């Protein structure tokens, strides 16, 4: 069971992640690092959508989970894109290297908070 302390800690980490991403944009007057926020917010959606769309059969455990695998693939793609996009922008000299580092760390904190929130507050299924 997650309590109030868990919510407070997760919100604190999420605020630090957003602060790092916003500062990576505002300190160098270049707002391209804010694209990382979009990728990390969109990243959990394929897992959620594909988890709802998969046909869970109680009698057949050996049925294929292609929909779930596709959702996990898309989520992994968005997470890697959240790391690779600032690296690509820094390589092309569109953003500074320090902005890249702040953006990657902030983005990982944001996505880690989203994953932790879903893990701590996941409802247990009863049969």
Structure description:
This protein has 127 residues and is mainly alpha-helical. It has one domain (4-53, 65-120). The protein contains five helices and no strands. Helix 1 (4-26) packs antiparallel against helix 5 (97-120) and helix 2 runs antiparallel to helix 4 (66-91). The mean pLDDT is 87. InterPro entries: Vps55/LEPROT. One of its GO terms (biological process) is late endosome to vacuole transport via multivesicular body sorting pathway. Belongs to the OB-RGRP/VPS55 family. It comes from Glonium stellatum. This is Vacuolar protein sorting 55.
Q: Can you summarize this structure?
A:
One of its GO terms (biological process) is late endosome to vacuole transport via multivesicular body sorting pathway. By secondary structure, the protein is an all-alpha fold.
Number of domains: 1
Choose one word for the global shape: flat
Task: Please provide the count of β strands.
Answer: 0
The helix-and-strand class reads mainly alpha
Unreliable spans are: none
Question: What share of the residues does DSSP label as strand, in percent?
Answer: under 5%
Outline the biggest β-sheet. Answer: none
Q: Which oligomeric form is depicted?
A: single chain
* Count of individual helical segments: 5
- Give me the strand/helix succession: HHHHH
What integer is the average pLDDT? 87
Amino- and carboxy-terminal Cα gap: 20 Å
Helix-residue proportion: over 70%
Rg over CA atoms, rounded to whole Å, is 18 Å
